[in-house]
Amino acid sequence: MSNIVLYGMDISPPVRACLLTLRALGLAFEYREVNLLAGEHMIIDFQQRNPQHTVPLLDDGGALIWDSHAIVCYLVDKYGKSDELYPKDLLKRAHVNQRLYFDASILYMALRSISVPYFIHGVSLVPKEKVDNVREAYGHLEKFLSDSPYVTGDALTVADLCCAATATSLAAVLDHDPINYPKITAWLERISKLPSYMEDSLRGLNKYIGLLKGSLTIL
Length: 219
Ligand SMILES: N[C@@H](CCC(=O)N[C@@H](CS)C(=O)NCC(=O)O)C(=O)O
Fold this sequence. Notes:
The chain is an alpha/beta fold.
């Protein structure tokens, strides 16, 4: 019996990064849905577990960890049969960490600055400068992928899973078309072929795109 519980909602990009990692590691876990749209993350019980009231939240036998980037690293360190997805080598790990922080601070924030106003406040008008942030983030990603199949080199790591969960969701705002973003397009194609991808990530992603795309008007 697994002690791992993941609290989440599958439309959430960081939740999908954790689902991809759990599947890639072949771990058994219980999934508990937290309906953000119904405000379930704001109830006292959830806030006692995560005062930042965000999903994903991992409960591993009573140990509580939130933030997808912290969760995916913990899962590989604790349960990975190898360190492939999160290398122990200091320099390789530093490169993976850099891309994880890129996802947390640049890529995901470009999305969040549009999705929170929409989902929480019903704001569907998106100022051009917010789309420019997305475009700039895609530019960085395209460069990371210029000479290698994955964001830190030849091997898939948790940085790919986190960045891909966000980048695929950003398509709701700005398409990463093969003309302007050939490397991103090929990389996402590669990720989409992972056996773990089809299980829950695609369903959540499609729901997310369905909710957001078409509802937004770029100013
Ligand atoms: N950096 C965090 C971001 C988590 C986050 O913002 N999750 C959103 C859903 S995509 C959320 O729970 N929002 C509810 C809130 O902020 O109250 C992570 O990677 O886990």
